[in-house]
């Protein structure tokens, strides 16, 4: 099978009501990569999240579908807010909004320089695909503003009581943390009980995220989603 860089133009477009069956992550010998190929159409992306996968690929690579083992997650009730962050929040240093500038957030996430990473996986295809999910009501963002300027934020995909975090950025110290903390509180009030953080980062570890076995994550995900289907 020919490998295309990015989405395969010959793969069928799946609308929001169509689904694709990926290989079962629990039967995989890989600790992350489960499949490659396909596209980033709405039905394809929603299928992936429902089955515990997400796209993550580099330049000149096909779309690669990951399900890491272990998985990094956060239960909203376990979020840890440091004393210094509590002061920042109390002082209302940042104005925080939800879904006010999704395009600005995802573009900023694509431009931010990250340690030990060459370039970004958030290319134009990713931006277009998640912007479409946002327009369909599945992808959401939180924005941190300072004196009217967008200085931090994060975005991800929500399916009922599960939120799948995708990326965050900060142009000012603590801006992304403030946006994330606000988003977690907002989601919890709306009934979200599980936040997928994908893979370990020191940034989210300090906020209370922890690793669990992939098997436990997949079973937990199925349990959460079955309550709504």
Strand segment tally: 10
Rg, rounded, reads 17 Å
Biggest sheet: strand arrangement: 5-6-7-8-9-4-10
Enter the CATH topology name of the domain at 72-226: Aminopeptidase
Q: Under the CATH scheme, which architecture of the domain at 72-226 would be assigned?
A: 3-Layer(aba) Sandwich
Compressed to H and E, one letter per element, the order equals EHEEEHEHHEEEHEHEH
Provide the CATH superfamily of the domain at 72-226.
Leucyl/phenylalanyl-tRNA-protein transferase, C-terminal domain
- Helicity range: 25-40%
Low-confidence stretches: none
Number of helices: 7
Distance between the termini: 35 Å
In the CATH scheme, the class of the domain at 72-226 would be Alpha Beta
Structural class: alpha+beta
Notes on the protein architecture:
The protein has 229 residues and is α+β, with helices and mostly antiparallel strands. It has a domain at 72-226: Aminopeptidase (3-Layer(aba) Sandwich), CATH 3.40.630.70. Helices cover 31% and strands 23% of the residues. It contains seven helices and ten strands. A seven-stranded mixed β-sheet has the order 5-6-7-8-9-4-10, with helices on both faces. Helix 3 runs antiparallel to helix 4. The longest helix is centred in the last third of the chain and has 15 residues, at 175-189. It is globular and about 50 Å long. The termini are far apart. The model has no long low-confidence stretch (mean pLDDT 95).
């Amino acid at each position: 099978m020919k490998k295309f860089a990015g989405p395969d133009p010959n793969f069928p477009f799946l609308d929001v009501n169509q689904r694709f069956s990926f290989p079962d992550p629990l039967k995989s010998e890989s600790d992350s990569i489960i499949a490659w190929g396909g596209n980033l159409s709405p039905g394809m992306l929603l299928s992936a999240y429902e089955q515990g996968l997400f796209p993550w690929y580099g330049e000149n690579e096909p779309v690669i579908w990951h399900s890491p083992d272990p998985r990094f997650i956060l239960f909203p009730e376990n979020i840890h807010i440091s004393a210094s962050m509590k002061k920042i929040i109390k002082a209302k240093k940042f104005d925080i909004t939800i879904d006010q500038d999704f395009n600005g957030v995802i573009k900023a996430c694509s431009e931010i320089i990250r340690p030990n990473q060459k370039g970004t996986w958030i290319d134009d295809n990713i931006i277009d695909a998640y912007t479409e999910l946002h327009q369909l009501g599945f992808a959401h963002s939180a924005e941190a503003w300072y004196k009217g300027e967008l200085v931090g934020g994060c975005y991800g995909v929500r399916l009922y009581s599960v939120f799948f975090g995708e990326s965050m950025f900060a142009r000012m110290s603590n801006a992304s943390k403030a946006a994330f903390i606000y988003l977690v509180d907002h989601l919890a009030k709306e009934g979200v009980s599980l936040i997928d953080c994908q893979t370990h980062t020191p940034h989210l570890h300090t906020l209370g995220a922890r690793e669990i076995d992939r098997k436990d994550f997949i079973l937990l995900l199925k349990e959460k989603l079955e309550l709504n289907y």
